[in-house]
Amino acid sequence: MLASAALAWVVLLVRVVGLRSFSKMTSFDFVMTIAMGSMVASASQSQEWPKFLQTIAAMAALFVVQFAAARLRRASETAARVIQNEPVVLVRDGVILDKALKETRVSRDDLFAKLREANVSSLDDVRAVVLETTGDVSVLHGESMDKRLLHGVQSAHDGEGA
C-alpha cells in the first residue's frame, strides 16, 4: 500500500516538475535519480505514517532543490559551472589525448571498450570522444563533424591541452 502511494507521489511530482527530473543530463540529475530510488524504497518500507510522510516530504524537497538548481544554472553562467561538470574531449581527430585521460581517470582499456561499443573500426574515423557531464561517453565518428557539436566541451578546440 505505502509503496504504491510512494510511486504515485513520485509520478505526481514528475508531472508537476517535468520529465527533466530524471533526464540524467547533469551529474546533479543523476544523483537525483539515485536518491529518489532510495527514498521510494524507504517510503515503501515505512511501518509508521510519520516516517512515511517525512520521506515523501523529503522527496518533494529534492524536486524543489533540483528545480531551483536548474533555474539557477540557466540564469547564471557561474552557477552553471559550479553545479555541473564540464564535458571533456578524450580523443580528437583520431588522436588520444593522454592528458585528458589522466585528468578524468579514464583508462585506455575503457576508452577502447567505448569505441568498440560505438562500432569504431579505426581511430582514424574518430572525430571526437567526449566524456559527458553524466559520465557517459559519446563517440563521434565518420567522414566529418559539425564543430557546433563540441560547443561547451573542455579543450574541444585545442590539441593536447585537455
UniProtKB/TrEMBL annotation:
The answer to whether the entry has keyword Ribonucleoprotein is no
Identify the residues that the record assigns to the YetF C-terminal domain, covering every copy.
76-144
- Membrane topology reported for the UniProt record: Multi-pass membrane protein
Q: Which InterPro entries match?
A: DUF421, UPF0702_alpha/beta_dom_sf
Which keywords fit this entry according to its UniProt record?
Answer: Cell membrane, Membrane, Transmembrane, Transmembrane helix
The answer to whether the entry has keyword Isomerase is no
The compartments listed are:
Cell membrane
GO cellular component annotations, sorted alphabetically?
plasma membrane
Task: Supply the Pfam families for this chain.
Answer: DUF421
What does the similarity note say? Belongs to the UPF0702 family.
Q: What is this protein called?
A: DUF421 domain-containing protein
Q: What is the lineage of its organism?
A: Bacteria, Pseudomonadati, Pseudomonadota, Alphaproteobacteria, Sphingomonadales
